[in-house]
Design brief:
Largest sheet: 7 strands, antiparallel
Distance between the termini: 27 Å
Helix content: 10-25%
Strand order of the largest sheet: 1-3-4-11-6-9-12
Structural class: alpha+beta
Number of helices: 4
Number of strands: 12
């Protein structure tokens, strides 16, 4: 996959998100009124980032891409239920590896997802200080009592990649970002 520059788009149908990602998704609006979905996306061979904002409550269902692990960092008070579990703040949501997911989000939802190839996962985890456990890869979890430093490192990593200049993104291989 060729490295892409940042793409920013606004959708009137959140299911059109498939134009920017390999996700299988089904968003069903559960709050009245017109919905607007804003996306900021960037991808490389090993890492895919998606910052999503929706202004209406939705029921989210779908499946993450194969041979990847996805971590989600929801905005404060924007996810109610994740795979049958109540979400407490702050949280890291895991999507498993090509596993189905389901959630209920509030109006004003925002979330950052970082999809990492299985081949790159261990190297990245070492860089940002994240302990990789089998359940992170194989199950769908809500980590409400996660190490705050790990949650912060994931969030900083994703936002840094989304906002860095294209040439640096292509050169970096995403390795030096957290260190300095």
């Amino acid at each position: 996959m060729k490295t892409q520059s940042v793409q920013e788009i606004t959708l009137s149908d959140p299911n059109d998100i498939t134009s920017l990602s390999e996700w299988t998704v089904d968003f069903r609006q559960i709050e009245p009124g017109p919905i607007t979905t804003s996306l900021k996306a960037r991808s490389s061979e090993n890492v895919r980032l998606l910052l999503t904002r929706m202004d209406r409550a939705v029921h989210q269902m779908g499946q993450s891409p194969e041979d990847t692990v996805t971590l989600g960092i929801p905005g404060a008070r924007t996810i109610r239920i994740w795979n049958g579990l109540q979400v407490k703040e702050p949280a890291i949501l895991t999507f498993g590896s090509s596993a189905a997911f389901e959630g209920i989000s509030e109006g004003g939802f925002s979330g950052l997802t970082i999809t990492i190839s299985n081949a790159f996962l261990v190297r990245l985890a070492d860089q940002i200080g994240l302990q990789i456990q089998d359940e992170l890869i194989n199950q769908k979890l809500v980590c409400s009592r996660c190490d705050p430093a790990a949650r912060s490192a994931i969030q900083v990593y994703g936002r840094t990649l989304l906002n860095m200049p294209q040439q640096r993104f292509e050169r970096s291989e995403h390795e030096e970002l957290v260190a300095g």
